[in-house]
Amino acid sequence: MEITTPFSKSQLMPQEEKLEIRKKRGQLFIGIPKEDFKVEKRICLTPESVNMLVKAGHKVLIEAGAGSEASYEDIKYSEAGATITHDKEKVFGCPIILKVEPPTLEEIKLMKPKTYLFSALQLKTQTKEYFEALQKKKITALCYEFIKDRYGAYPFLQAISEMAGIASIQIASEYMCRMNGGKGLLFGNITGVPPTEVVIIGAGLVAEAAIRTALALGVNVKVFDNNIHKLKRLQKSLPYQVFTSTIQQRVLTKALMRCDVAIGAVKGCNRSPVLVSEEMVQRMKPGAVIIDVCIDNGGCFETSEITTHEKPTREKYGVIHYGVPNITAKFSKTASLAISNIISPYLLDLSENGSIDDAVSYDSTIRSGIYMYKGILVNEAIANWFNLNFKDINLIVL
User: I need a labelling partner for 169 at 20 to 30 A (CA). Which of 36, 58, 162, 379 fits?
Assistant: First the structure.
């Protein structure tokens, strides 16, 4: 009986085994320029991270003095294997640029076409011209805030939010000192002395870090947020119960009139909602302190204004207002360590994929952070905000 088969004779013959060939590890050439120290004192990579990259076969070129405001001197980077230069144009000529602050229009002019830019974006402070300048140079730009890991978390935002929350309490304590114009109150629970009162508006990551820090100092804390689920999560995660409330004007006004410090930590989709009116601020105690952590997103106090690290506070109606957008830059070394810990593993992963373009294709974590790909805007939110055209990155690279 003849046996039939759907395969041809050649198909039944033994075939050569085809194995996947691992991509050759790519070499990265990274440039780290000096930030404008008036607004930014952090640096993307610590000497330890630079040493790790150099040992992996990569090159790092750093502008002289780039790490000085984060307490990292040039000699430390040189010993780690980096090359130090005083030529800013040479640094911006590297294929990969690492910055904390987004580059200025003048700095973009120094970049070569098709450069890869890694930096923060601070969307609400940007202009349409910034994105148009990147498009002209066909730059691929990655934003730290957009990076989303395989677990759905935003590692950069989480680290910075935690730092901002802790920093807000420390800064408030600083401005409560009498020599800084405050009321001379100590953050602490002293026997026989009423504790300092702090109102925190928001129940997210920034607020939780601020609350934990305040409670550790023995401060009385009241928390306001309109998201009941966030308030429940907060109560479960804290070591003991605190006062929580939805944002009701009469209740919030009463709490603000009694408090010594008010911290705004509410992020919105487009901008932070204004939850504290000018009239409510007028009724606060003289010498009280407002720390508006979400000022870079518009702020949630009507009287808040953007300030700088050189002149961080303004006084309105006898209340001290702190409105520095990049609040963590005040603690530049700690912030630099946190940023470096997040960025350096991604840089090593890039080289393992052979090239950045390959990494964008295969690694969803890297792809999530890209908002400009070879001059093509691939982020819909940015496109809608600035009325620009965009394309889905998944249709370009896959």
Answer: 36
Between CA 184 and CA 39 the distance in angstroms is 29
List, as one string, the DSSP characters of 148-216: --TTS--HHHHHHHHHHHHHHHHHHHHHHSGGGTS----SS--TTSPPPEEEEE--SHHHHHHHHHHHH
| pLDDT tens readout for residues 305-353 | 989 888 999 999 999 999 998 889 899 999 999 999 999 988 888 877 6
Chain position carrying tokens 């009239």 = 279
Q: What share of the chain is helix, strand, coil (3-state, %, to 5)?
A: 40, 15, 45
Backbone phi, psi, residue 23, to 5°: -60, 145
| DSSP one-letter string for 81-130 | TPEEES-HHHHHTSSEEE-SSPPPHHHHHHSPTT-EEEE---GGG--HHH
DSSP string for 49-83: HHHHHHHTT-EEEEETTTTGGGT--HHHHHHHTPE
pLDDT in tens, 37-62: 888 899 999 999 999 999 999 999 99
Length of the chain: 398
Q: What are the beta bridge partners of residue 259? A: none
d(CA 132, CA 138): 10
> What residue ranges of the chain have pLDDT lower than 70?
1-13, 15-25, 268-271, 353-354, 398
Which amino acid type is present at position 317? Y
Structure tokens at 46: 């610590």
Residues 6 or more apart from 5 whose CB is under 8 A from it? 12
**C-alpha to C-alpha distance for 261 and 320, rounded to whole angstroms:** 9
